[in-house]
Amino acid sequence: MRLFALLLGLLFSLTGVSATVAQPVQSQPAGVVAFGPQRTERIEAELVPMSQWVAPGSTTVVAVRQKIAPGWHTYWRNPGDSGGATSLIWTLPAGVSADPILWPLPSRQRLMSLMNYGYSGAVLLPVPIHVPPTARPGEVLTLTTDVLFLVCSDQMCVPEPMTLSLALPVREGAAPLAKPWGGEIERLVETAPRPAGIEARATRQGGQLILTATGGPLIGANIGQVYFYPFDGGRIDHAAAQSGQRGPNGLTLTLAPGKETATTALSGVLATDKGAWEITAEPGAPLAGAQGVAALKPLDDTTATPTKTGAWVFLQALGLALLGGLVLNLMPCVFPVLAMKAASLSAAAHDPARARRDGLAFTAGVLVSFMVLAGALLALRAAGQAIGWGFQLQSPGVVAALALVMLLVGLNLSGVFHVGAGLQNAGSGPLSRLPGSAGAFFTGVLAVVVAAPCTAPFMAAALGAALVLSWPMALAVFLVLGLGLALPYLAISLSPGLLSRLPRPGVWMERLKGLLAFPMYGAALWLMWVFTRQGGVDALGLLLTAALLLALAAWLTGLAQAARQHDERPILSTICAIVVGVLALGLAGVAAGAARSADAAPQGDSGPLAAQPWSAAAVNAVTASGRPVLVNLTADWCVTCKINERAALSSPRVAKAMREANAAYLVGDWTRRDDAITRELQAHGRSGVPLYLLYRPGRAEPEILPQLLTEGVVVDALKD
Questions:
Q1: Of 7, 367, 630, 645, whose CB neighbour count within 10 A is largest?
Q2: pLDDT over 90, % of the chain
Q3: Contact 356/494 with Cβ under 8 angstroms?
Q4: What are residue 125's DSSP bridge partners?
Q5: What secondary structure does DSSP assign to 62-122, as a single string?
Q6: Alpha carbons 720 and 701: distance in angstroms, whole number
Q7: Spatial CA neighbour of 369 closest among 440, 434, 447
Q8: Of the ranges 69-73, 79-83, 307-311, which one carries the lowest mean pLDDT score?
């Protein structure tokens, strides 16, 4: 699509279409003139006045009002890397003239490696109109313009030609503002970027373009954010980051040069949080007094991408949530739970009714669990808490409980005790099987609690959208995420054809169940390791003792179950199982309390990379010394984080690249709740870990590395 837009923009330039200069005035045509809004599927447009009438010899303002459909956008005078500016060809009465458009500041529209400048939603493009002194009161001036909009989405661009007309009455005296658009047009005219006595220079230095600007409103201005919009394409790399510094008399911007190597003056709009002004930077040495006071950040752009309605964002979030839920089925932390259900599915392969019940119950457990987690997350968000996805594993009590649950599931699969034991005449005697509908529901709950922290890239995008949507839409996103997690199991359970292809139950099922117990034991060990990182070895000792007592209670329960199968009454073993189980749960609670009161385990070095604790102050201190910084925001319960740290961040090749770049390595540990890390995640549009940031000296904004790292990705980023 962008290639098509580039070709279309080239066609515009070859045919001389431009909106930056008013076109020659044509004679007034005869016949009927169409007034009012003109509409297509993608855009509605009309000419609207600022004033109710015009006086002879005065200057008034009319505006081209655009109402752009959701998901579509038009372009600024410099469209950026693709697209084409809106053009106007006027047909005016004799003596009436039109100035160029007073372009409002555009939004920045990024798509992959491209950056465009344009508008979306409702837009007004003001145009000054000069009325001659010979105009007579009582006369009506008909203004007509042929407009060519290039209306684009992320998939395609459509040229939209329209003819817009407006009738302006001529009267004596000052005119009041016209409703409903007069006030908004007046505000745009007053705030439109104009020259303001700013002196500017453009200097090539070491492959960069240094833009310095001093004087006028920049002297002594406490500017914190800035962005430069060039009038001409090709002069700078639009998609590259812009960094800057403020000085006592002005500011300095570091830009990436574009493909055009012209040595002429560089003109554009210098937009700041204190105002926007047109500047022309002549080639020459940097101006004095333009740096040394403070670093500047890129100007906030609340419409940096084409404005999309809540419905559009909502649909995108639903699609990403479904995909993220499907991806979760492949994550290491959830696989043991799903493998356990695979054994149950095989047992019901030739019992379609039972398979359907289990599939629906498992799905219900997943959806209810996502609803509970989402409700808690949104409630805490509404209360102003700094939280993020995976927050349940920041609680030592939850981690301890999950570890013991995983242990119990493993013991059940190993045959120490049986849940829902039944008889299956498959030639092998009684076989323990997984629970029925209640057990399937519980397994869905367990899958969600364990899977949620495994934030895959697609899941992160969906959750990021859900956390800014209204609460009904956010809950819907979480439900679709759960549906994606449950969908493979549900599809198989509801398909008799797929079920019939599974092997019939037999002795192999008992062996498979025994084998699947070991991933559950592994999950329990991993959770205990996380618990150790949260609460230390003393708390771990208490939890291990609780696990031993719980295993004893499970064994006593198994003895009681075996006795009942022989028509015996195992009163003693049942009482002992209950007493030991209660002791185990009480001791687990004591372990969780000890972990909460303990200091977090110290963060050690990770492999060859010597890590220092992350903080915003630490990042600023290192970058101020001229060194790059690699930031790793991680957590011990995040399996993706640990895989990245073992596979990429601990490699000797990465360590060598870090030494050659003289880079610092800062680690933010989110294993236990840390509000500063949560705010940093949210500042970069994330709701969970991992997040990898690479800060470079002289650049205000970091580069965000992929969530799934390879050593090549890290090494290449350090070399840039």
A1: 630
A2: 20
A3: yes
A4: 64
A5: EEEEEEEPTT-BEEEEEEESS----EEEEE--TT-EEPPP-PPPPEEEEETTEEEEEE-SE
A6: 15
A7: 447
A8: 307-311
Residue type present at position 437: S
DSSP at 132:
P
pLDDT digits (tens, 9 = 90+) for 505-539: 556 656 766 776 787 787 788 778 878 877 777 78
The predicted model scores a pTM of: 0.43
Which tokens in the block code for residue 67? 């109402």
Residue 378 has a pLDDT of 67
CA distance to 83, 183, 329, 553, 642, per residue, from 403 (Å): 56, 63, 20, 16, 19
672 against 207, higher pLDDT: 207
Which of helix, strand or coil describes residue 198?
A: coil
93: Cβ–Cβ under 8 A, 6 or more apart, which residues?
A: 28, 141, 142, 143
Distance between CA atoms of residues 678 and 684, nearest Å: 10
φ, ψ dihedrals at 394, nearest 5°: -85, -5
**Quick one: CA dihedral 551, 552, 553, 556, positive or negative?**
positive
What span, in angstroms and rounded, lies between the C-alpha atoms of 480 and 463? Answer: 11
DSSP annotation of 685 reads T
What residue type is 621 in one-letter code? A
- CA 349 to chain CA centroid, Å, is 41
> 335-347 and 437-451 helices cross at what angle (nearest 10)?
160
Q: Tokens 């009319």: give the residue.
A: 62
The CA-atom distances, in angstroms, between 301 and each of 221, 271, 298, 308 are 20, 11, 9, 14
pLDDT in tens, 243-271: 889 988 899 999 988 877 677 889 999 99
Whether 539 and 591 have beta carbons less than 8 Å apart is answered as yes
**What amino acid occupies position 327?**
V
CA dihedral 596, 600, 601, 606 (to 10 degrees): 130
The stretches of 605-688 forming alpha helices (DSSP H) are 616-624, 639-644, 652-661, 675-683
Do residues 701 and 300 touch, judged by C-beta distance below 8 A?
no
**DSSP 8-state assignment for residue 647:** I
Task: Kindly state the average pLDDT of the residues 536-562.
Answer: 86
Q: Report which of 692, 714, 695, 716 is spatially closest to residue 640, judged by C-alpha positions.
A: 692
Question: Who's near 342: CB < 8 A, 6+ residues apart?
Answer: 516
